[in-house]
Amino acid sequence: MIIGVPKEIKNNENRVALTPAGTQELVKRGHQVFVQATAGEGSGFLDEDYVESGAQILPDIQSTYAKAEMIMKVKEPIEEEYELIKEDQLVFTYFHFAAYEGLTKAMIKNKSICLAYETVEKTDKSLPLLVPMSEVAGRMSIQEGAKYLEKPLKGRGILLGGVPGVRPAKVMIMGGGVVGTNAAKMAAGMGADVTIMDVNLQRLRYLDDVMPANVNTFMSNEYNIREMLHRVDLIIGAVLIPGGKAPHLITRDMLKEMRPGTVLVDVAVDQGGCIETCKPTTHEDPTYIIDDVVHYCVANMPGAVPYTSTLALTNATLPYAIQLANKGWVKACQENRELALGLNVIKGDVVYDAVAEAYDLEHVPFEKYLGDVWGKLKD
């Protein structure tokens, strides 16, 4: 298969979808890898590194899309890439369709095959291609939140861990999944007073067992959230509905219950955000203030630490990329239920329930493309 790796062009996105090591693994299996010039530089990988691994370097994004049968990316295509994607071209990347209607319509129109990292799902319901970036984003959420609590950055002027004789900051984490767990580890390690909220009592029991003493658990509901708002200094939004739009757990009117300088970090911004006043921001201009509350809503947080993020992401995506390249997307998805669940849009048809539901579009059954085997997979 011919694989193309374009340079990411989203604001301050320095990650790349494939490392030289990953390139070598694909090339030695007989595949051709074309990498856009300087695509890996932001992550510390030079064009010469890719050439040594067997890739060919192309001068621009247009030639990279034109050459490839499968495109490997990190972030969703942005508007200037829509027309570059060809009919029947496989695009393997994060899409987050439920948060981007324009992207969804563009991918339907160009009749490509969209296989989303974020909905590849194991039998235990874990999301193996979302986990590494969720780990990074969860840990970064505390790092960034601690910074924006500083007074010069319009925060409350509180040191996250406090000092002897002074109470530490109070951190509320909404969601006890991968993001929330990693955020709690970081906040607890820095000495904060941490509360994790979730609707899953079994998950709360688990977290209560494994977390240090300065991490408490609390059932998530509107009453309990409102009860916490006037007491916390940093709030982390870490809610995920796979492939779907995140629910608004903090509404516009709740901001008035927070103290001036409270910081909100909405890691769920890629899926529409779990804070109603959330809107995507960039590393270049990461925050804005509403009702004296600081909002940090960067949509590609792991892009700020691209070396770590690129290695972590390739570790997870490469085994799936090899399957797709070796077998083609149809056979690979027929044989691997995890990959099949990553399919969101196929040749103009929306085949993922949550995406169709988000925009009131027709949901087309997978059987149309995968045959009877899809029924077996669902069972």
Question: Could you characterize the architecture of this molecule?
Answer:
With 379 residues, this protein is an alpha/beta fold. The chain folds into two domains: 2-111 and 305-378, Rossmann fold (3-Layer(aba) Sandwich); 131-304, 3-Layer(aba) Sandwich (Rossmann fold). It is built from 14 helices and 15 strands. It has an eight-stranded mixed sheet with strand order 3-2-1-4-5-6-14-15, with helices on both faces. Strands 9-8-7-10-11-13-12 form a seven-stranded mixed sheet, with helices on both faces. Helix 4 (79-82) links the parallel strand 4 (70-72) and strand 5 (90-93). Helix 6 (131-148) crosses helix 7. The radius of gyration is 21 Å and the shape is globular. The model has no long low-confidence stretch (mean pLDDT 94). Belongs to the AlaDH/PNT family. One of its GO terms (cellular component) is plasma membrane. One of its GO terms (biological process) is L-alanine catabolic process. One of its GO terms (molecular function) is alanine dehydrogenase activity. Pfam families: AlaDh_PNT_C, AlaDh_PNT_N.
Keywords summarizing the entry:
alpha/beta, Rossmann fold, globular, seven-stranded mixed sheet, eight-stranded mixed sheet, 379 residues, 14 helices
